[in-house]
Amino acid sequence: FDHIPILDISRMWSDDFEERKSLSTELREVCSKVGFFYAKNHGVPKEIASGPFRQARNFFSQPMEKKMEVYTGLLPENCYYGYHPLAEYNMNGKKYNDLYEAFNFGYEFEEDPEKPTEKPDHYENSNMWPTGKGLENFKKEIFDYHRHLLTLSRRLIRIMALALDLPEDYFDEAVKFPAAGMRLVHYPPQKVDADEQVGIGAHTDFECFTLVNQDMVGGLEVLNKSGNWVKAPYIEDTFVVNVADCLMRLTNDTFVSTVHRVVNNTSGTDRYSCPFFFGVDKRYVLNPLPTCVSSEKPAKYPVTTCGEYLAWRASLSKARRQK
After folding, report:
1. Which residue from 7, 127, 152, 305 lies 20 to 30 Å from 181 (Cα-Cα)?
2. Is residue 234 in a domain?
3. CATH classification at residue 13
4. pLDDT in tens, 89-145
5. Would you say residue 126 lies in a domain?
């Protein structure tokens, strides 16, 4: 591929099954060949979608000592939440560390618009929340957005089920208590070439899929099968959606989790993005889906739970910190 496709996902809300089915056919095409697409007509109001950017600027402009009050190093190595300081990681062994700082948090039962009456026994909340001037509405405004993304993602995974020749409600039970994390990321402008430094190094995401809300600066790049970096620039009122590793494992590589990175060395200004990572319940066993495995296409991955897999990936990632 030499560009990122655009899908009108408004059909996923249609009462007409054939419209939802037609969207699933297009979705299967892009998820199996590209692993990335722009989602337009997603239904999230502009004011809600802009909230995380306001709060990202508020948070990252705090003094370092305030940000370090929620430092990720205060949590276990298999938990990726909290603040990740500027240039603390080097994913690809570049001359200079990756030029970003981030704040991560996860699903909270109380903030789920579709939560059942009872909190699940396995529910844990390891989130840390910053305090400081200008952060009085930090959590509220972020979860105003997070709730919309939960609703959108639960509907989108139904279309993915159809795309995989499964019943539309196949994943409903698996996403009642999803692994639904989110990240605020700040990329200062880089002063060197991408051979020496990137905003964030080439990687794939952990969960089932990611919804990226990015600003106008650009810098997101996707690696195609020819080894070329394809730009995924800002397109107004869209999210960039990408398949992540848990879904690739579930589909036995029918859907592809595509390598991507950020390079912010031409804009001369700060870049912000707000990726939302949607996955199944952490107890869910990542067995290959019945429509994606056969005698001709045997299972490729060892079986594990979503929670075990996410903890392992988080530990690997945090081990890249430059201490």
Report:
1. 7
2. yes
3. 2.60.120.330
4. 999 999 999 999 999 999 999 999 998 778 888 888 999 999 999 999 999 999 999
5. yes
How many distinct structural domains can be found in the chain? Answer: 1
**Does the model's pTM come out above 0.85?**
yes
Q: Is residue 1 one of the residues assigned to a domain? A: no
Backbone angles phi, psi at 105, to 5 degrees: -150, 165
Cα distances (Å, whole numbers) of residue 60 to 86, 122, 132, 200, 250: 10, 32, 11, 17, 36
Query: Looking at this protein, which amino acid is placed at residue 62?
Result: Q
Range of the domain at 214: 6-318
Tell me which amino acid residue 48 is. Answer: I
φ, ψ at 266 (rounded to 5°): -125, -15
- Per the CB < 8 A criterion, the answer to whether 35 and 242 are in contact is yes
Tell me, yes or no, whether 205 lies in a domain.
yes
DSSP state of 5: -
SS3 265: coil
- 66/253 Cα distance (integer angstroms): 43
Strands 82-84 and 101-105: antiparallel
Q: C-alpha distances in angstroms, 11 versus 20, 150, 280, 311, 316?
A: 6, 17, 23, 35, 38
Q: Burial code of 194-212, b = ≥16 C-beta within 10 A, e = fewer?
A: beebbbbbebbbbbbbbbb
103: exposed, middle or buried (Cβ count in 10 Å: 0-12, 13-18, 19+): buried
